[in-house]
Amino acid sequence: MEHLIRVTIEDYGYLAVFVLMVLESACIPIPSEVTMLFGGAAANATFAASLPGSPPHLNFLLIGLMGPLGTLVGSSPAYWVGRAGGRPLVERWGRFVFLRPHELDRAEVWFADHGQAAVFVSRLLPVVRTFISLPAGVAEMPFGTFSVYTFAGCLPWTFALAGVGYALGSRWTLVERYFRPISIVVAMLIVVGLGWWLFRRARHKRLEGADKR
């Protein structure tokens, strides 16, 4: 994956960074850490001169902006799916993970109060940042508000990564190696947490069924 990202950016420059960030935000496992780190490194003239072939000259500011723009475009389909399906979508599929109507009510109230902060903060978190668009759509957050907070939340993330890549140049992979285990740990914690929640909910449902008999 790292090699594919590098070659794509070397060949297509800004367009590659934009498309890769679109795909990552559409839940395709393309790590934004690698895309933005290498994009920033490729804007470093010294490092770019050492790359094979003739990669296009890249501007650091434009590389940084391609990140949030790509994220916004890639996140939009999930937002509109949630917006079109709304509460019925969650009720239809939520029952398979034992979501109850009163829990959906609480979630709606919470998102109405904290949705803007949730969208902004989630864009700074590995793994979580990819999946916030659907609940934002279900909660019917105005698309303009969703777009603003998505873009604003991505700016620190993408510019920080691109800045580190630019500063390190050929040594950009050192940082990527640290991000990789962090992303894996976050993903594992989410999976374990969901698994434990589903186990407890399924157990509670079985006990309710036994009491009724």
How would you describe the overall organization of this protein?
There is one protein chain. With 213 residues, the chain is mainly alpha-helical. The protein is built from nine helices and no strands. Helix 1 (2-12) crosses helix 3 (32-42). The radius of gyration is 20 Å and the shape is elongated. The mean pLDDT is 76.
Give a topology summary.
Blueprint: H1 2-12, H2 14-25, H3 32-42, H4 45-50, H5 60-94, H6 101-122, H7 133-138, H8 143-168, H9 173-212
Helix pairs in contact: 1-2, 1-3, 2-3, 2-5, 3-5, 3-8, 3-9, 5-8, 6-8
Task: Identify the notable features of this structure and list them briefly.
213 residues, mainly alpha, 9 helices, 0% strand, elongated
Tell me, rounded to a whole number, the average pLDDT: 76
Helix count, DSSP H or I runs of 4 or more residues: 9
Q: What string, H for helix and E for strand, traces the elements in order?
A: HHHHHHHHH
How large is the radius of gyration? 20 Å
Helix coverage percent: over 70%
> What is the molecular shape?
elongated
Structural class: mainly alpha
Q: What's the assembly state of these chains?
A: single chain
Number of strands: 0
Strand content: under 5%
